[in-house]
Write a structure and sequence with these properties.
Protein name: lipopolysaccharide heptosyltransferase II
Distance between the termini: 53 Å
Radius of gyration: 21 Å
Order of helices and strands: EHHEHEHEHEEHHEHEHEHEHEEHH
EC number: 2.4.99.24
Number of domains: 2
Structural class: alpha/beta
Shape: globular
CATH class of the largest domain: Alpha Beta
Keywords: Glycosyltransferase, Transferase
Family: Belongs to the glycosyltransferase 9 family.
Catalytic activity: an L-alpha-D-Hep-(1->5)-[alpha-Kdo-(2->4)]-alpha-Kdo-(2->6)-lipid A + ADP-L-glycero-beta-D-manno-heptose = an L-alpha-D-Hep-(1->3)-L-alpha-D-Hep-(1->5)-[alpha-Kdo-(2->4)]-alpha-Kdo-(2->6)-lipid A + ADP + H(+)
CATH architecture of the largest domain: 3-Layer(aba) Sandwich
CATH superfamily of the largest domain: Glycogen Phosphorylase B
């Protein structure tokens, strides 16, 4: 018998779901875990030791594709699943394990999923669970009170040394020089993004403090213009956004001496790789999805209007990010290095 986990569509959420897999493996050490994931999230699951197989979804994003899901579910039926954990809150993903005849189907209430799921979890919308606790709770029977992140395993990704070395060589990076990664994107929306000018100023401060530092910008193709704008203001930075597949970005982050990131998927990848991190929070709550590295700093100005959780600043000033200076971030980096 096997276990099926249906992945969220967000990279950061996939990382924060990893403690659930640790708990499932502890409960059933001999039961292989397969993960059904979209192609853009799959590299995260490949980096998890608990995953036996990653099955990439053939569906278009946002489309119901009922006939295709029925055909796909028939194929899954042959793999002999005892249970399925449906992490997205949508109807269309809850359909798959139901159509596949998987006996135990676990997930949150979501949209119109009664009957499709037969182990249904709920959470208080006025007091949402931190993301790691949100997913990890699915390993146990539904409960009102669930373990907090401090009581749970922390997200952990693995990158083998061969992949690290090969990726460094292909990217033109030097293994004998300090490496700082900037992650200036945020798929959720512009409100999460620290200003381009601030990243450029931080690059200048880093170059003054560590003359041989390598600064690499990582992100998706959507982040390419942001990276180019930073390079225009700080030519010594290296923009690999859009040019580096997620698999390679994970390998580069695994070698980083420090990562400066908005609240984004790459932040949580760096956390699960136990890198030094300065995490920049504006419209989102730093306690909801914090980094779990041994050494990290979560910066938030704590303005009265935050966390608004909006894609764009509803007040038009974006002070939660603009007023967070490069000097503040540099100070956090120095603090993590013992004041050096």
């Amino acid at each position: 018998m096997r276990t099926l986990v249906i992945s969220p569509n967000w990279i950061g959420d996939a990382v924060m779901a990893q403690p659930l897999l640790q708990l499932l493996r502890q409960a059933h050490p001999d039961r292989p875990i397969d993960v059904l994931a979209p192609a853009w999230v799959a590299p995260v699951w490949y980096a998890m030791a608990e995953v036996d197989s990653v099955i990439e979804t053939p569906f278009r994003h946002g489309a119901l594709q009922l006939r295709e899901r029925w055909t796909f579910a028939r194929q899954l039926r042959q793999r002999g699943y005892a249970d399925a954990y449906v992490l997205p809150n949508t109807l269309k993903f809850a359909l798959i394990p139901w159509l596949a005849g998987i006996p135990q189907r676990v997930g949150y209430v979501g949209e119109m999923r009664y009957g499709l799921l037969n182990v249904v979890h709920r959470q208080d919308k006025l007091a949402p669970r931190p993301m790691v606790a949100f997913y990890a709770a699915l390993a146990n029977p539904p409960a009102t009170v669930v373990p907090l992140p401090a009581q749970l395993p922390r997200p952990t990704l693995m990158v083998d040394e061969t992949s690290r070395t090969a990726t460094f060589q292909q990217s033109g990076l030097a293994s004998d020089r300090p490496l700082v990664v900037f992650a200036p994107g945020a798929e959720f929306g512009a409100a999460k993004r620290w200003p381009i000018t601030h990243f450029a100023e931080l690059a200048r401060l880093l170059e003054e403090a560590v003359p041989d530092v390598q600064i690499v910008i990582l992100g998706s193709k959507k982040d390419l213009p942001i990276g180019d704008a930073i390079v225009t203001l700080s030519p010594a930075t290296n923009n690999l956004a859009g040019a580096t597949p997620l698999r390679d970005a994970i390998a580069i982050i695994a070698q980083a001496d420090a990562v400066i990131s908005n609240d984004s998927g790459l932040l949580h990848i760096a956390s699960a790789l136990n890198r030094k991190i300065v995490a920049l929070y504006g419209p989102t709550d730093p306690n909801h999805a914090p980094p779990f590295s041994d050494v990290s700093r979560s910066l938030s100005l704590g303005l009265e209007c935050a966390p608004c959780r909006q894609r764009e600043c509803p007040l038009g000033h974006h002070r939660c990010m603009k007023d967070m200076s490069a000097e503040m971030v540099m100070g956090a980096l120095r603090e993590m290095d013992g004041g050096g």
